[in-house]
Amino acid sequence: MNIFTTLDRRQRRNLGVLFTAGLLFWSSLASLLPVLPLYLRDLGGSEQQIGLVMGAFAVGVLLCRAWVGRLADQRSRKLALLLGLLAATIAPLCYIVVKTMPLMGLSRALHGISIAAFTTGYSALVVDLSPERNRGELIGYMSLVNPLGMAIGPALGGFLEAWTGYTPLFLLSAGLGLVGLVCTWQVEEQPLAPSIALDSAATSSKQFWRLLTSPRVRIPALVMLMVGLVFGALSTYVPLFIEQEQVSLNAGLFYTAIAIGSFVVRFITGRASDRHGRGLFISLSLVCYALSMLLLSLANSAEAFLIAGTVEGLGAGILLPTMSALVADRASPLERARLFSLCIGGFDLGIALAGPLLGTVAAQASFRAMFALAATLAGAALLIFMTQAGKDLRHSLRFALGRGQDVYAYQAPEPELVLGQSQPLSRH
User: Fold this and answer.
1) Which residues, including other chains, have CB under 8 Å from residue 34's CB and lie 6 or more apart?
2) How many CA within 13 A on the CB side of residue 400?
3) pTM for this structure?
4) How many other β-carbons are positioned within 10 Å of the β-carbon of residue 283?
5) Are residues 344 and 212 in contact, defined by beta-carbon separation less than 8 angstroms?
6) Backbone φ, ψ for residue 162 (5° rounding)
7) Which pLDDT tens digits describe the chain residue by residue (428 residues)?
């Protein structure tokens, strides 16, 4: 972690505040993972209704991703962070008040807005503060907030619900979001130069969705869509699967196993992806996702569930920071938040679809069949990435195996060009 000694005092302070806010945010969200599906069942929800409500947060994400991306690029990364934490504070309070499935779905959609706003602002601001040649390493360290929050939140949420019930847990989740909101007020960001902000505003509305057709964004977004389907099944149905199989395991510990795997691997992945390329590590992560879903489809003991969770954690710990670094590599500063929004938007859409689609498989067949299908989806994502990540099959395979450069990496314009006519946002 010597990279932090190369940063100035202001950068270190901002990164420290951001890390604290991120840890609180993810702990708040993750505390509900092992409990919310069971709460919905206790309210009378069927498996398909539970899937729809749990996936509804992705609807909120999708509805505001484009707007949040433009807000972060044109106005302020910090404003996006504050919006996300405000929604994370309010949504758990709504769960206490509402008791019907449609209203729970609306509350869950509000929680989705928190994810869209916070993750977009956080990712863009971390990259803004990162030295380019150590970008992957710093993103890897700063992304540790996710596995740490996923370790603290589910374990705390599962035991607190068992000890005191649902309401204190929802209050805890809201309280963590509120403290994170207070922390974020301390972040100092460098405002965009007026000319840059004006150029970004003038071109953003017509270019945002056009960016999705660019090959530098389309394939990462598609891969994240398929991983989102896998993660949606994991986050919604594992607690119910454990209960159905009568396995003696607190579901919170399953998510803690995910967090441990994700935490450990991030210390290695960021620096290694700077040195050996992003493609190799994205491929490895997709192998881990496929293997973990296969293990889940066969799991019948606490040990088997924990092993599957750890392997999934390895996949998540490699994929999420490496994909963030890949998008940062391919984006100009003017479009950074919007490219994050589009790429992670694929993940959000996958989660939204996982409830109704994979929930139907679980209802009509079994949870085991559903996780076997999820393993197939992860394998398909690997195949797509290895054959489509570059401009042709040869370049794609070389990049995915760590043997070639990313042909879509952004190249900053030469200084003499900056003094002349402004450059377009996208080269593709």
Assistant:
1) 154, 157, 158, 161, 239, 250, 251, 252, 254, 255
2) 25
3) 0.73
4) 21
5) no
6) -65, -30
7) 566 777 778 888 888 999 999 999 999 998 887 788 888 888 888 777 887 887 787 778 778 877 888 888 778 889 999 999 999 999 999 999 988 888 888 999 888 899 889 988 898 888 888 777 777 888 888 888 987 887 788 878 878 887 888 889 999 999 999 999 999 988 887 655 444 444 444 444 446 567 777 778 889 999 999 999 998 888 778 888 998 898 988 887 888 888 889 888 888 887 788 888 899 999 999 999 999 999 999 999 999 999 999 999 999 999 988 998 898 888 877 777 778 778 877 887 887 788 778 878 888 889 999 999 999 999 999 999 999 998 899 999 999 999 988 988 887 665 444 444 444 444 34
Six-digit token pair at 100? 């019907």
Among the residues of 389-424, which ranges form H helices? 393-400, 415-418
CA 118 to chain centre: 10
- Give the DSSP letter of residue 133: G
Torsion sign across C-alpha atoms 176, 109, 105, 374: negative
Amino acid at 248: S
Burial of 97 (0-12, 13-18, 19+ CB in 10 A): exposed
> What is the spatial distance between Cα 19 and Cα 1, in angstroms, rounded to a whole number?
14
| Residue 359 to residue 381: CA distance in whole angstroms | 20
